[in-house]
Amino acid sequence: MKFLILTEMDHVAYVKLHRPEMRNAFNPEMISEIIKTFLDLEKRQDLRAVVLQGEGKAFCAGGDLNWMKEMVNFSFEQNLQDSTVLFEMFEAIAHCTLPVIGLVHGAAFGGALGLIAACDEVIAEEGTQFCFSEVKLGIAPAVISAFVMRKANAGKVRPLMLSASVFNPHIAQQAGLVTEVVGHGEGHTALQKTLQPYLQAGPQAVRETKKLLNNLESLNWKQQKEATAKVIAERRASPEGQEGLRAFLEKREPSWRST
User: Fold this and answer.
1) In what order do the strands lie in the sheet with 129-131?
2) Is residue 187 within 8 Å of 150, Cβ to Cβ?
3) How many other CB atoms are found less than 10 A from the CB of residue 139?
4) N or C: fewer beta carbons within 10 Å in the chain?
5) Strands 121-125 and 107-109
6) What span, in angstroms and rounded, lies between the C-alpha atoms of 12 and 173?
7) Residues annotated as region Disordered (predicted)?
C-alpha cells in the first residue's frame, strides 16, 4: 500500500495513515486503501482489535487540497459518486466488527472527525486541535455528519459543526468524540492499557456485541426485542459462551486468554 502502513502485534492490527508530508490528508487513493484494509481486517478471525493512527506531526488534516481543487470542476454526478465513496470509507471503519481504537495527536480537521467518529474508542493527546472546518470553505460536514451524530452529544457538537471553531481535546471529550485525554507524547502508553480489556474479552462476543449495537438504531422496538433475545440465546449456546460460563463457574481463565 502507498498511503497506509499496516502492522500486527499480539492479535492487534495497527493501521497508520502515511502521508506525513501532507499531514495525512486523504485523497481518493488513500480512501480506497482504507476501505479495502478494513474490509479485509473484518474477515480476520485471529484479530481482536484495530488501532487507527497517523504518521508524523498530525493525525489527519481531512481532505487533500489538490483533491479539493479537482472537485471545483466536478459535475454534480461526479461529486455524488465521490462523496458516496467517502461515506463508504467511514462505513467500513464503523461497521468493522472488530473494536477500532483511534489514537489522535497534533490535529484532526474536517473529514478526520469522521474517522474519529467511526472509531469505538478514541485517545487524544493534549495539544491536539480539532475543527469541523467545512463551513469555512463554503461546504458542509455532510458525509461525516451521519457518523458524528450517532456518536456525539448533539448539544455540544452542533455549534462546533456550524461555526467551524477550533477546539481542544477536552471539548472533544465533552462532546463524546474522544474517550480519553492524555498528556503530549503519552498516547502509545495509554493505548496499551486501553487494549487490554479487549484482549481479555471473548473475541466472538465482542464482534457480536458491536454488530448488535450497530444494528439496533435501525430497528423498531419489536425488532429490538427479537434481535437482542436472539443474540444472547446464540451466545449462551455458542462454544465460546459455554467456555466462558464454565470458566467463570470453575474459577479459571477461559481458553481464549491463553492464545
Assistant:
1) 107-109, 129-131, 166-167
2) no
3) 13
4) C
5) unpaired
6) 25
7) 234-259
**What does the alpha-carbon distance between residue 196 and residue 138 come to, in Å, rounded to a whole number?**
43
* Euclidean distance between CA atoms 34 and 26, whole angstroms: 10
For the stretch 67-87, pLDDT in tens is 887 887 889 999 999 999 999
CA distance 54 to 91: 19
* DSSP secondary structure, 83-115, as one string: HHHHHHHHHHHHT-SS-EEEEE-SEEETTHHHH
Sign of the four-CA dihedral 178, 181, 184, 190: negative
Q: 186-223, pLDDT tens digit by residue?
A: 999 999 999 999 999 999 999 999 999 999 999 999 99
Q: Residue 259: pLDDT band by 50, 70, 90 thresholds?
A: low
pLDDT tens, residue by residue, 14-51? 999 999 999 999 999 999 999 999 999 999 999 999 99
